[in-house]
Please model this.
Amino acid sequence: MQWTKGDYRVTTEIGEFDFDVVHQYLSEVAWSPGIVREKM
Model:
């Protein structure tokens, strides 16, 4: 499933996720600091 609005796109296609980017973000935000990639 995919939604697009302007420059933004939301998808549920796991093959399109950039897990390096997701992990970097999650490891820096307040609610999941230091999360290890294997837990994502």
